[in-house]
Amino acid sequence: MFRRHISSRNEPTYRILYMLSFAHFINDALQSVIPAVYPLLKSNYALTFTQVGLIALSYQLTASLFQPLVGSVSDRKPRPMAMVGGALCSLTGIVALSGAASFLWILVSVALIGLGSSIFHPESSRVANMASGGQRGLAQSIFQIGGNAGSALGPLLVALIVIPYGQRDIMWFAMGALMGIMVLYKVADWYRGQLSKKMGSQPSQLSTSGPAVSKGHIKLSITVLIVLIFSKYFYMACMTNYFTFYLIEKFQVSIQQSQLYLFAFLGAVAVGTYFGGPLGDRFGRKKIIWTSIFGAAPFALVLPHVGLFWVLVLSMCIGVIMASAFSAILVFAQELLPNRIGLVSGLFFGLAFGLGGLGSALLGNLADRTSIAYIFELCAFLPLLGIVAGMLPNIRQAD
Length: 399
Hints:
Helix 5 packs antiparallel against helix 14, helix 8 packs antiparallel against helix 9 and helix 8 runs antiparallel to helix 15. This protein has 399 residues and is an all-alpha fold. It is built from 15 helices and no strands. 77% of the residues lie in helices and 0% in strands.
């Protein structure tokens, strides 16, 4: 529905974008297994909420710290097969998690899954940008929708496959990892061909000029975007990691029922992700960024004070509104620094995971000292930070 409203010099390479989206679906479905099995692991190993938070931190630190490094290296020398290597690392982590018999082994397993994600995201985001045909918001949304759909479906599959039978059945997710590896091998082959074509291009075709914004404004803008990422992903850490516990504690739902509510929230996130990029292409990324963070505040503030039905409705509203931010934030940053696509992608994906992991650990510790209900009341104020988006410059988007 958006294509006819957007002018571009070239058509996006949809075949590659859809393959990347599928690979992102697999990657994030594997990641979503981790928070989905928290209640099972907490019960099996008598874990505290602090230990649950440390599991999230272990995964998300490896999923964040290496991303800027991978992105910076790929800016200098792209490595098409790196995406395949990342998927192999995630496969190893999933297999290890299915057989983990101690808290330490769980930490190692989730760290491997995080490392695989850390390798996958910067290079695949670069390929999405390369296949965009100038419609960068649309390309990132297609790429992101796969990831968010995987995040949403993961808990549902865990509820159906793992929770009724046990930790060993996490092994079934290895089949998805193998499918992702095969798809990424084909994407890497296309990517290698595109790099060969660029090697024969004129130097003027290999670089892109940035927007007419001063270096000071660029630094300020990156700082503002980081604040917005903090707001979004601390809140998302609360919802993704502790929403099931909140529902179980406050409304006495079963573990399986709580997974279905989490699936509904993450499904809404997937829907919001799809619309964020194309709407940014059409109406301007600054407007979408401001609306998607600050606009979620009223719903977040009300959620801790309503019944189960309205918790479901409000969580889905929050998911749709807040999820539209990331594609717009990422492409806005890429347009500020168009010759550092890998570094920018790695930085913002890394921040998303790192802040999410830090938030999970801090909120888990706080929940042990107070209650799950309290952290939801506290985190409800985070979307108010979206007001700082007004400080972003208005930059002309590339055709």
